[in-house]
Amino acid sequence: MKISLSPYIVKHAPVFNTEKIVDIYEKKDEVPVKYVCTTDLQASDLPVDIFYRDTPHPEFGNRYFGLYKNRYSEDAKIMITNADIVEKYEFGMIKDRDGMMWYSQSHHDCLFIDGGMIDGGRQYVRGTNISGIYKIVDGEFVKMSSDEDEETWPGQDSGIEDFSTNY
To answer: Please, what is the Cα angle at 132 between 143 and 37, to 5 degrees?
Structure first.
């Protein structure tokens, strides 16, 4: 059974104004587009705003696309990339006292929220008081069942570490 998180309880730290990006691409491509998350894709510590469309792009075939700032450009040019790989990644989440869910968006993005900690971006999940492990499916965060295979994505090191149970 698919258990999705409401997009209104997941906290994000986008690179760009996601509402403006959604508006631009909905008008350009004439299809609904929604912001999903901000995360590393294949490069460490290079956050990418991820967007989703139900139908594959007619020319490139992807349903997810990502926008990021080219850190090697003096004027930080905006780059676009195929982001379909985002469905292969795991997102550890912690919950704050108001019930909002937080994830580490980049490899070295360590968050300390209301007694919980989450770190590792898509490289690994490390933290305390982890509320669950989620994947993105059809543009939504979906909780993984405890029996799902955790060895499905590149870059995973020793796996999930919840320090609250290790010590």
So the answer is: 65
Measured at the CA of 39, the angle between CA 135 and CA 137, to 5 degrees, comes to 25
For the chain, which residues make up each domain, given as ranges? 18-85, 87-151
Cβ atoms < 10 Å from Cβ of 80? 13
What sign does the CA torsion over 163, 159, 38, 77 have? positive
151: its two tokens: 């060895």
Q: Where are the beta strands (DSSP E) in 44-144?
A: 48-52, 64-69, 78-82, 91-95, 101-102, 111-113, 116-119, 125-128, 130-137, 140-143
CA–CA dist 32, 101 (Å, integer): 25
Express the helix, strand and coil content of the chain in percent, nearest 5 each: 15, 35, 55
Q: Quote the pTM value.
A: 0.83
| 112-160 pLDDT, tens digit each | 999 999 999 999 999 999 989 999 999 999 998 765 444 433 333 435 5
Q: String of b and e for 13-24 (b: at least 16 CB within 10 Å)?
A: ebbeebeebeee
